[in-house]
Amino acid sequence: MKGIAAIILGAMAMSSLTDALATVFCAGSSAAIHDALLAAENNGADDEVRIVSGTYQAAGTGFGYATGEDRALAVSGGWEPTCTRRYVTTTTTLDGGDEVRIMILEAVGPGAISVAGLTFANGRLASGTNTGAGLYVQTEGAILIEDNVFVSNAGTDYAAGLTAGGNDGSLILRNNLFIGNSAGSSAAGELIENGAQATVSGNTVIANTATSADGDGNGGLYFGGEAHYTVANNLFWDNGAFDVRNQTLAATFLHNDYAHGAGQPPGPDSEGDLDVEPDFAPGLLNLHTAPGSPLVNAGYDALPAGLGSFDAGGDMRRQGQHVDIGAYETDVIFRDGLE
Questions:
Q1: Cross-strand partners of 52
Q2: Pairing between strand 7-9 and 85-87?
Q3: In angstroms, rounded to a whole number, what is the distance separating the alpha carbons of residues 199 and 251?
Q4: Average pLDDT of the segment spanning 271-293
Q5: What is the overall mean pLDDT for the chain?
Q6: Highest mean pLDDT (candidates 12-26, 122-136, 213-227, 305-319)
Q7: Calpha distance 183→208 (Å, rounded)
Q8: Residues 52-89: pLDDT tens digits?
Q9: Which pairs count as long-range contacts for 254-263, CB under 8 Å and 24+ apart, including other chains?
Q10: pLDDT category of residue 1 using cuts at 50, 70 and 90
């Protein structure tokens, strides 16, 4: 574990969306997660579901939340058993067992929803269900999805890893890893936001597979809706057919690395995109870039939505002169010596 950033007090770890939450649930079992989300649906309060570090199986219809209240919901992993401290480098995994969709969070009103510090693994879409085998989020309010891992989720049609969006709010997808997801198209995820602004920054989207028979599938992320998208500092690489598909007419691309794009071209204010081999550090499935990678210190710093506090591995974001491209910061002084 990264000793310097390993333990963060709960109040410091939460985003601005969760600062004033009234009801806190501490969940240390699959049943407790289910019960907490069910209670949060209609309790008349803003809610926070803190999930203790560990692995939890999603069964039946998975973990679900559906509300008509105008209240915020925050779901986060990495907590110690008493849920008073959050370990940002400790894994909390929600596992679909290759059988079920893992988590659905839906709000009819403008309640904000945030999801942080979770691994969504082995979700599978049921027959006739199109999107979001790992995580499905829909609300008319603000959406924040950061510091999560989406791995080995699968579906027949679209968006095995993540589906998120709404009509009147905003969306931030920040510092997440998408790897090994598989679907007909948009295997990593699908964002459809019709509010004012969507920001997609600091994510690594790699080795996701498009299974569409016509060869026109998109293994990476899909952007749609009427929001203005800012797409910055992302690594899209080695995804089936296309790394990213942009179907919105208003998207600014800043300092991303990708080889194959589809749909609408980047907007006129776009700059700094690369098409280069990432140059990962040695080691099996090591997605940190090597110190000499062209992605180190190559990102765009001045995002209105911010860079986030941590990368996907729990290290502090922006370690050098500029933020790195991708979900992981590389230029940490004495990375190995401070383990």
A1: 79
A2: antiparallel
A3: 10
A4: 92
A5: 88
A6: 305-319
A7: 8
A8: 999 999 988 899 999 999 999 999 999 999 999 998 77
A9: 254/230, 254/300, 255/298, 255/299, 255/300, 255/325, 256/231, 256/232, 256/325, 257/294, 257/295, 257/325, 257/326, 258/220, 258/234, 262/216, 262/218, 263/223
A10: very low
DSSP code string of 200-245: EES-EEES-EE--TTS---SSEEEESSSEEEEES-EEES-SS-SEE
pLDDT for 129 beyond 70: no
* pLDDT confidence band for 331 (50 / 70 / 90): low
pTM of the model: 0.91
CA dihedral 183, 185, 188, 189 (to 10 degrees): -120
Which amino acid type is present at position 166? G
**Chain CA centroid to CA 309, Å:** 14
What is the 8-class DSSP label of residue 18? G
Among candidates 150, 148, 134, which has minimal Cα distance to 208? 150
Residues 6+ positions from 227 with CB-CB distance below 8 Å: 170, 171, 193, 194, 195, 196, 197, 198, 248, 250
**Strand order across the 63-67 sheet:** 63-67, 103-107, 135-138, 162-166, 189-193, 221-224, 244-246, 261-263
Q: Are strands 244-246 and 261-263 parallel, antiparallel or unpaired?
A: parallel
DSSP labels, 115-165: EES-EEES-BPPTT--S-SSEEEE-SS-EEEES-EEES-B-SSB-SSEEEE
Distance CA 318, CA 20 (A): 27
**Smallest Cα–Cα separation from 228: which of 263, 191, 188?**
191
Q: Answer for the pair 56, 80: CB distance below 8 angstroms, yes or no.
A: no
Task: Please report, as a single letter, which amino acid is at residue 317.
Answer: R
Least confident of 65-69, 73-77, 251-255, 335-339: 335-339
